[in-house]
Amino acid sequence: MRRTYSATRNALLTSAGPTWGAGALAFAVLALLARLIAPGAFLYAARPMLAIGNDLSAAGERVYSAFADTATLAAKNQKLFEENSALAAENRALLAELADVRGLGSPDASAKSPAPLIAGVVSRPPTSAYDTLVAAAGRADGVFAGMEAFGAGGVPLGTVSAVTDSFSRVALFSSPQMRTQGWIGAHRIPVTIAGEGAGSFSASVSRDAQVAAGDAVYVPGPGALPIGTVARIDGDAAAPTETLRIAPAVNPFSITWVMLRDTGATFAASATSTP
Amino acid sequence: MIRGLFVILTLASVAVFPWPVPAVLALSVAVYEPLVPLAAGLFADTLYYAPHAAFIPYFTLSGLLVSVASYLVRRRLRAGIIGE
Q: What is the pTM of this model?
């Protein structure tokens, strides 16, 4: 009887000698070993490729935005300009007020708080999966696991989850497994903010909470720090709860630097220092 | 040689493109090289996996599943038809 397939032949290896697939797997295993044994050197070696990824994603975003409707873009630009002017004025007023408050308090109070670190971003979403950042600052710069990362305007982004001598990995609050305690709106409704990937979040609240689209979402830091705004509310009218879709305050796809600071309110005890 | 080029492109795309691009490439190459999805998934987790961002390395597991599926398909079909 004629056989329809060869039982003696390994279907994973397509020819008698080494295959491209086996070579690819060997390369991946070597890369994994390099990360486990020498994580710092591994990130140094991978950095040029990751930089190309950042450049390509930025270029892709520019091309994509070029196809957008120009009238919509102009309206959006005008709105952003007005918001920016208002925020700049508000910021100046707040800074003046802060200077007054500091003048009243102890002069040593601000000196005791450690200075934040500014770190460049080597890898970021969407190239970086899991919504993680690789920051170009590590143990040698004073970074340790559990520090909090902030973006432009002091927006909280995530926490440092692993550190090498020269690099650190930041798990963003929008990572799929991250759960962050925070609150919503002027009434400070407490919620658990769940990461949804690609910078977005979700939260579940009671229908009686009367949360509306556009409400700000805050997390604790030094004070209440805005992390995003409610973009959409989903849910069945008969259900007792509704799901909030939250847009991030900072687009993770365009983060080029982060500020790392110890807030003392993170998961330092469970975070790892390597790799 | 073309096959090798696609394998290299798949691995390189893990580092420079968002994950759907290497995923599509790995699925395409899996027809001829069943180990490539596993390799691409492992490489993606090696580059990007961070503690607290995910409980398990999803890309390695997904790659493993696709590789096993590809292996089973190849086993059921005549090996001479695919890849030679």
A: 0.74
ipTM above 0.90, yes or no: no
Q: Which residue(s) pair with A204 in the sheet?
A: A243
Residues 6+ apart with CB under 8 A from A126: A57, A198, A253, B18, B19
- Residue A200: partners with Cβ closer than 8 Å, 6 or more residues away: A174, A245, A246, A247, A248
State how many domains chain A has.
Answer: 1
With tokens 């579940």, the residue in question is A204
Sign of CA dihedral A90, A227, A122, A81: negative
The confidence score (pLDDT) of residue B33 equals: 86
Element (H, E) at A40: helix A39-66
Q: Could you list the residue range(s) of the whole structural domain that residue A133 is in? A: 121-268
Q: Omega into A275 within 30° of 0, i.e. cis?
A: yes
Q: How do the domains of chain B map onto residue ranges?
A: 2-76
**Helix-then-strand count for chain A, H and E:** 4, 12
Q: Report the CATH number that the domain containing residue A230 is assigned in CATH.
A: 2.40.10.340
Residue pair A193/A181 in contact (Cβ under 8 Å)? The answer is yes
* A54: in domain: no
Q: Where are the alpha helices (DSSP H) in chain B?
A: 2-16, 20-29, 36-48, 58-76
Q: Say if A255 falls within a structural domain.
A: yes
Interface of A with B in 167-186 (CB under 8 A): 169-172, 175-178
Contact A162 B18 (CB under 8 A): no
C-alpha span between B29 and A83 (Å, rounded): 49
pLDDT in tens, A35-91: 889 888 888 888 888 888 888 877 777 777 777 777 787 888 888 877 887 787 777
Is A171 in contact with B39 (Cβ distance < 8 A)? no
CA distance B62 to B55: 14
Query: Which of these, A205, A199, A146, A148, lies nearest to A176 by C-alpha position?
Result: A199
Tell if the CB–CB gap between A19 and B55 is shorter than 8 Å: no
Residue B12's closest CA among A127, A118, A181?
Answer: A127
